[in-house]
Specification:
Aminopeptidase, 96 residues, four-stranded antiparallel beta sheet, 20% helix
């Protein structure tokens, strides 16, 4: 089943970040620096109206003088039942 990719809030990412990426930390530890920056974009993958995956993109300036418009993918996580199904593959890139 294909997932629907849509933009979400940083708060929407916390439950899956906690469950998949930081299970031994507090829910507060699932808030990343720059989560609420104006340039940051969060995506959610939905199947049957249920959030099953998340990914966050942060606009960052790198020390390389040629890297003018750079983005960092961080906090990408997918719930267990749909891991390794490719729900974020090209669809995330096309959503940007």
């Amino acid at each position: 089943m294909r997932a629907k990719i849509k933009q979400i809030t940083s708060e929407d990412t916390h439950e899956i970040r906690h469950q998949i990426l930081r299970p031994n930390q507090t829910l507060d530890d699932c808030h990343y620096r720059n989560d609420n920056a104006e340039s940051t974009i969060h995506f959610g993958a939905y199947q049957r109206d249920q959030l099953v995956g998340i990914a966050s993109l942060y606009h960052e300036t790198l020390p390389d003088q040629y890297a003018i418009n750079t983005w960092r993918l961080r906090g990408m996580a997918i719930r267990e039942p749909v891991q390794q199904t490719g729900i974020f593959n090209e669809r995330l890139v096309l959503s940007m």
